[in-house]
Amino acid sequence: MNIHNNNFTSLLIFFFFFLFSSSTTAFPNFFPNISSIPPSFLPNHTTNPWDTFNKLSGCRSGQKVDGIAKLKTYFHYFGYLANTTGNFSDDFDDALEAAVKNYQKNFNLNTTGELDTSTVNQILKPRCGVPDIVNGTTTMNSGKTTSFQHSVAHYSFFPGTPRWPSRRRDLTYAFDPRNELSEDVKRVFANAFSRWSEWTPLTFTNISDYSSADMKIGFYSGDHGDDEPFDGVLGTLAHAFAPPTGLLHLDNAETWIINDVFTSGSSSSTAMDLESVAVHEIGHLLGLGHSSVENAIMYPTIASGVKKVELDRDDVEGIQVLYGTNPENNGTVGPSFGEREMSGVARGSIGLVWGVILAVGLTIFVY
Ligand SMILES: *[C@@H]1O[C@H](CO)[C@@H](O)[C@H](O)[C@H]1NC(C)=O
Ligand SMILES: *[C@@H]1O[C@H](CO)[C@@H](O)[C@H](O)[C@H]1NC(C)=O
Ligand SMILES: *[C@@H]1O[C@H](CO)[C@@H](O)[C@H](O)[C@H]1NC(C)=O
Ligand SMILES: *[C@@H]1O[C@H](CO)[C@@H](O)[C@H](O)[C@H]1NC(C)=O
Ligand SMILES: *[C@@H]1O[C@H](CO)[C@@H](O)[C@H](O)[C@H]1NC(C)=O
Ligand SMILES: *[C@@H]1O[C@H](CO)[C@@H](O)[C@H](O)[C@H]1NC(C)=O
Ligand SMILES: *[C@@H]1O[C@H](CO)[C@@H](O)[C@H](O)[C@H]1NC(C)=O
Ligand SMILES: *[C@@H]1O[C@H](CO)[C@@H](O)[C@H](O)[C@H]1NC(C)=O
Ligand SMILES: [Zn+2]
Ligand SMILES: [Zn+2]
Asked: Which positions are annotated as binding Ca(2+) 2 (predicted)?
């Protein structure tokens, strides 16, 4: 009898919790393109949680400025600063200067150790929530020399180089059913997965059974149970966990764009391209860390209104160290590695040029 009552009580509690949580859980904001964002939506969606760092511009070692403590929390979050004393102070101390220098090195900035304008501008950019430095060692800008045209590689792995085991080449993914994602949104992820399967022996299959999928994708607001709370519009956009955890979380609060080519005329200060962020996070699901190559998918920041979905040479080299090449892709066709621009339109036309060159080549061969 008691047991029954207890069960009934917990059922009731669960029921009310469910009612309560579903009424407070906002669904993600998806828009097909920038022009479909209603103007009434934007005023409430323009605050960057890191805007306050603007007023720290020009700060340097030895100063004490209101807001430095929050900046230390930022550097701590992304792995640049150890938390030794409990609370952070507003003193610009030696530890913070070292953190700023490491950050500048990773983002190809002058290593001044000061919060110069380009450093602050970089800090403000929306980014992935995965730390750049795990357990104190940064491999992001270590400058590994590769055999390929003596170029310098900047891809990195998680500590211990976790990857999906060699008997697991056909992986599955599923979407958190609570998000009730549309087919259009799911297709964005299917496209994002195919960017990686094109260059590796891996295949990715969308299954409906969320609990048994290798990789689980969901949109969440604020604190969502993994000690990595989301921070609202901009700031951190998403995060994902190294193999074999397989969790990919995206911030509900972002203005997600699912189908825009982002021509130069269109702009919105908060519109984030969903596929660009998805391709990056899938890189983490497969075992890649961050890269210092600005054109690389695994570069930690991405601006709003930018589509960046094709793997760079640096991404391909990194993922092939973990999994090898795709036996069905000889690598002759594909992204024009190297000097690519960030705009989808510009890349599209480069792709077209490659297609034309290939077609011309084939025609000559046939004749
Ligand atoms: C944006 O999306 C809306 C709704 O799907 C569509 O009607 C409109 O043509 C699109 N605009 C552009 C510029 O693609
Ligand atoms: C924006 O915020 C205000 C005040 O918080 C609220 O009254 C309004 O409904 C919000 N608008 C939208 C489109 O969410
Ligand atoms: C720093 O560590 C202390 C104790 O270990 C903890 O209470 C505090 O929340 C941490 N601060 C940050 C910013 O992580
Ligand atoms: C940290 O700050 C909080 C609030 O400002 C304060 O209550 C707490 O005592 C501080 N802890 C330490 C270790 O300084
Ligand atoms: C780095 O310093 C050089 C020389 O002072 C300057 O020309 C350049 O603009 C600086 N780069 C950045 C990103 O601030
Ligand atoms: C970081 O190092 C500590 C101790 O050296 C270890 O226990 C922990 O598992 C490491 N974390 C990761 C993510 O490798
Ligand atoms: C993904 O799988 C679900 C369930 O199996 C199916 O309804 C949906 O059409 C699939 N979508 C894509 C884009 O593959
Ligand atoms: C390229 O791949 C195709 C299969 O996709 C294969 O038939 C062909 O022999 C390969 N070419 C080379 C040079 O490996
Ligand atoms: Zn990342
Ligand atoms: Zn999470």
From this structure: 214
Q: How buried is residue 269: exposed, middle or buried, by Cβ count under 10 Å (0-12/13-18/19+)?
A: middle
User: Would you state the CATH architecture of domain 51-124?
Assistant: Orthogonal Bundle (1.10)
The residue nearest atom 4 of ligand 6, judged by CA position, is: 135
188-247 confidence digits (pLDDT tens): 999 999 999 999 999 999 999 999 999 999 999 999 999 999 999 999 999 999 999 999
**What backbone torsions phi and psi does residue 117 show, to the nearest 5 degrees?**
-60, -45
Domain boundaries, the chain: 51-124, 144-345
CATH architecture assignment, domain 144-345:
3-Layer(aba) Sandwich (3.40)
Displacement of CA 50 from its chain's centroid (Å): 17
Strand, coil or helix: 77 = helix
Q: Which two tokens stand for residue 98?
A: 């070292």
* pLDDT digit string, tens, across residues 96-109: 999 999 999 999 99
Distance of CA 367 to the CA centre of its chain: 46
| 267 Cα: distance to centroid of ligand 1 (angstroms) | 14
Rounded to 5°, angle at Cα 107 from 102 and 110: 70
Strands 247-251 and 238-240: antiparallel
Question: Which active-site residues does the annotation give?
Answer: 281
pTM above 0.85, yes or no: no
Integer angstrom CA distances of residue 349 from 160, 295, 346? 40, 17, 5
Other residues' Cβ atoms within 10 Å of the Cβ of residue 334: 15
Establish whether residue 328 lines the binding site of ligand 8, counting it when its CB lies within 6 angstroms of any ligand atom: yes
